[in-house]
Hints:
Layout: E1 19-21, E2 31-35, H1 37-42, H2 47-51, H3 53-59, E3 71-79, E4 82-88, E5 92-99, E6 105-111, E7 126-127, H4 128-143, E8 150-162, E9 166-176, H5 182-190, H6 194-208, H7 218-240, E10 242-243, E11 265-266, H8 290-305, H9 313-325, H10 327-342, H11 352-365, H12 370-381, H13 392-408, H14 411-421, H15 429-440, H16 445-455
Bound molecules: adenosine monophosphate and magnesium ion.
Amino acid sequence: MSIKINFDNSFSNLPNKFYSKIFPEKTKNPHLIILNKNLCDELNLDYKNLTSSEGVNFLSGNLVLKNSDPLAMVYAGHQFGNWVPQLGDGRALLLGEVLAKNNVRYDIQLKGSGRTPYSRGGDGKAWLGPVIREYLVSEYMNNINIPTTRSLSAILTGDNVYREKTYPGAILCRVARSHIRVGTFQYFYSREDTKSLKILADYFIKNHFPNLEKKENKYFELFKNVVDGQIDLVAKWMKVGFIHGVMNTDNTSISCETIDYGPCAFIDNYKSDKVFSSIDSMGRYSYKNQPNILIWNMACFASTLLPLLEGKKEKNIDILQKEISSIPEKYKNKWLLDFSKKIGLKKIYPENEVLINRFLEILESENLDFTNSFRGLIKEVENSNELMSKTDTFKSWKNDWKKLFKNKSNKEEVCKTITSNNPAFIMRNHLVEQIIQELLIDKKDTLNKALLCIEKPFEKIKNYEKMYVSPTKEQEVLKTFCGT
Length: 484
Ligand code: AMP
Ligand code: MG
């Protein structure tokens, strides 16, 4: 049966300043590593068909369907705070859009499919490592209900990719509500191209916030919605100890999905200023700095909307400024509720903030695992002898914590809240690394285990103990590299 996908392309109908139309490079001998059955179903794609050789050719870019209109999107951005006037999909191509079962429109993109006019010095390719990292972490994020781009497939291309060594080439098929970034708005704003800026904003509103279309101040409403979505997103990252690693404005999605899984990783032992990225020497994108960078990125977005707002510029600046100034408080409330739930409290009581911060301080000073310590509070509720820490500081914390929830809730309720707000499985960096190393020698054992754990992140699968423990000193991966 031949491959049929109902592409319904709207981005490729925008003016040609928005992209370069270009075909993927041919791959030598493509092989499927993973195809996402659940996502195929959600997108109305025929899983079995995609596993056929024609399907694999499609997912590797060898076969371009007639109704697909491949293009590389252009954007700009601030990278580590430095302005770069032109970036763009240097190793990715949008094949088209599909309408999912829930009637939501999704972009289907190939990542690692060869050079484009925006590749600069790069080869437009990806190797197995970053493709697997993105697949595992993005699907994990989705399953713990964090908005994210998805991964439909990971393919080995049969070609070599040259980095510091030779590696097997790979292609990820990325699926997203949208690939429009703060950097896409910045691209037109910096060129003083207000006409294109308006086309871009209207296009986004039409597809994502159709209820805003008729509103008088729709661009300001767009801003507010994106700010709220980004606050929600970053708070969710903090809740699970996720460090994005490259929160540049070109990696900040207007659809508020986590995008660009380069040097990202989850914290093992809690350290508030933890950084994984090999290039983030100043800690700009450290764990604790993520909420501040969110403000910085939203301020960049605000500037780009100024030319679209009607009325006096000074007044508009004031209004946008006010919205930006409201971010810290909104974020704090979200954080407080999220972390209250992590310690088993469904509501915010006056004591919660101090209690949460004291717990985080204990994790940091005693070098304890972020995920397992929060999840381990279930045992502390049940008063088992397996104390996570024997220090007096912890015992005194535990006393105060118990006093509080005894007054407010019951044990079962507290345990339920802890269980549903702290995943048992976390897609740890050392596991990602182990899976990549195994795949390089054609082994899939840990990959298969991880895929099962990803499906059920809030439970522990029997006999998979090793998937749930923090890394030993030898296993720990201290640095991650940008995903090229
Ligand atoms: P990133 O750090 O992944 O957000 O990428 C920053 C910019 O570099 C984007 O414009 C990418 O498209 C481009 N880029 C990254 N890796 C490659 C590559 N291997 N070949 C061409 N362009 C790349
Ligand atoms: Mg990027």
